[in-house]
Amino acid sequence: MSTVAKKNQNEIKSRSLWQETWRRLMKNKGAVVGLCFLVALIIAAIASGFIYDYDTDIIQIDMSQALQHPSAEHWFGTDSLGRDIFARVLYGARYSLVIGMGSVAIGLIVGVTLGAIAGFYGGVVDQIIMRFVDVFYSIPNIMIAVVIVSLLGTSTVNLLIALSFTCATSFTRIARAAVMTIRDQEYVEAAYALGLPTWKLILKHIIPNCLSPIIVQVTLLIGTTIIAASSLSFLGIGVPQPAPEWGAMLSEGRQHIRDASYICIVPGLAIMFTVLALNLLGDGLRDALDPRMKK
User: Fold this and answer.
1) Cβ-proximal residues to 254 (8 Å cutoff; 6+ apart), any chain
2) Are the C-beta atoms of 166 and 107 separated by less than 8 Å?
């Protein structure tokens, strides 16, 4: 083996798992584009709270400025109530990102916990947990969210809780499958033989080795959840008016789709590009975390 080859091999061995994953991720142009877009969107969403005042710039009605086409003054035009669409789309990113990330985070905690318990113990515990999951999985996700929001009432928090149910079922299945492949490994049996408590064994040794498929699922589910939240807001049972949620903006602008199509196009493009960026990042993470992609 040549000196250069030995050097490269030593460099690879010296990198940690996450350093090697990051290096492979940065080689994926699509993932880099998606990551850059998401970082810029998050920064813009945070900055919008300092740039615009919610009461005067976001929800205040000014009929003298109604249905203004895109211009230097209003970059994306104004809606039927005279509100600046650019400001509302930028501010609305807060709702979509918070709902998407928040519901996935809640679903992640609940789903991974249930999946780890079902996969580790098996038997009756596994059967009980997975049968409940199968019941929820047999019902369309949007229908579960509609029922929960209808029961709890229309609010951002209730929408976040409703969407977290659908996320939890996906994480439960993934975590269970990953844990079942790891629970019989020698290091797990050794830790169990040493008397390590079960909860610590699961948290410290099993779940960290199941993170690869879970991380990929997180990025993909955030995009799916954003679409679901926008769909519910479009139907009028999501984020309550007059909050500038992207789905609600689409619903407001559909009656002007012929004479002022930009009212629908702009929030629609915001949803599309955000979900596309998340999918690109998710595909890149899947390739970077796949051991078969290593050379």
Assistant:
1) 264
2) yes
* Euclidean distance between the first and the last CA atom of the chain, given in angstroms as a whole number: 16
The 8 Å CB, 24+ separation contacts for 290-293 are 290/212, 293/24
Residue with structure tokens 């629908």? 264
Tokens representing residue 10 in the block: 């030593």
Closest by CA to 80, choosing from 207, 204, 249, is 249
| Rounded Cα distance, 10 and 114, in Å | 40
- Per residue in 256-291, pLDDT (tens digit) is 888 888 888 899 999 999 999 999 988 888 877 765
Distance between CA 172 and CA 234 in Å, rounded?
A: 29
- Cα 206 to chain center, whole Å? 24
Asked if residues 159 and 240 have their Cβ atoms less than 8 Å apart, the reply is: no
What are the tens digits of pLDDT across the range 133-163? Answer: 888 888 887 888 888 888 888 788 888 888 8
CA distance linking residue 283 with residue 153, whole number of Å: 36
Amino acid at 185: Q
